[in-house]
Amino acid sequence: MPTISIETTERSDVLDMTEDVSRAIPDDADGIATVFARHTTAGVTVNEAESRLLEDLANALDGLVPDAGWAHDEIDNNADGHVRAMLVGPSVTVPVSDGQPDLGTWQSILFVECDGPRTRTIQVETVDG
């Protein structure tokens, strides 16, 4: 099963990984691809990859979920990252045509880091339909 490695440089970060996902899909695939973050403090979503919007998303998650006052912080001080990742979700499923994600005009597959900087592994599973 193809995997993608992503390096993040910030505690909260949003990165466009559409090209990486495209390379992980077999050239002859037609069906669906599920893109899954194998982490509890990171997520995947589909939206526009405009740089200010990516920054807005990271800032919105930071604003929605404060980084202090959580019981889990007694263990490893990253409860906010877990809660932010739960809001985003760990995966997306997208249609695939001719070996490429069949996305809308402004849609991109985005990786959302909630507890970086880290090296992350993303799994891409393609099912022909």
UniProtKB/TrEMBL annotation:
Gene3D superfamilies: YjbQ-like (2.60.120.460). It comes from the Archaea. Pfam families: YjbQ. Signal peptide: none annotated. InterPro entries: UPF0047_YjbQ-like, YjbQ-like_sf. Belongs to the UPF0047 family. This is Secondary thiamine-phosphate synthase enzyme YjbQ. It comes from Halapricum hydrolyticum.
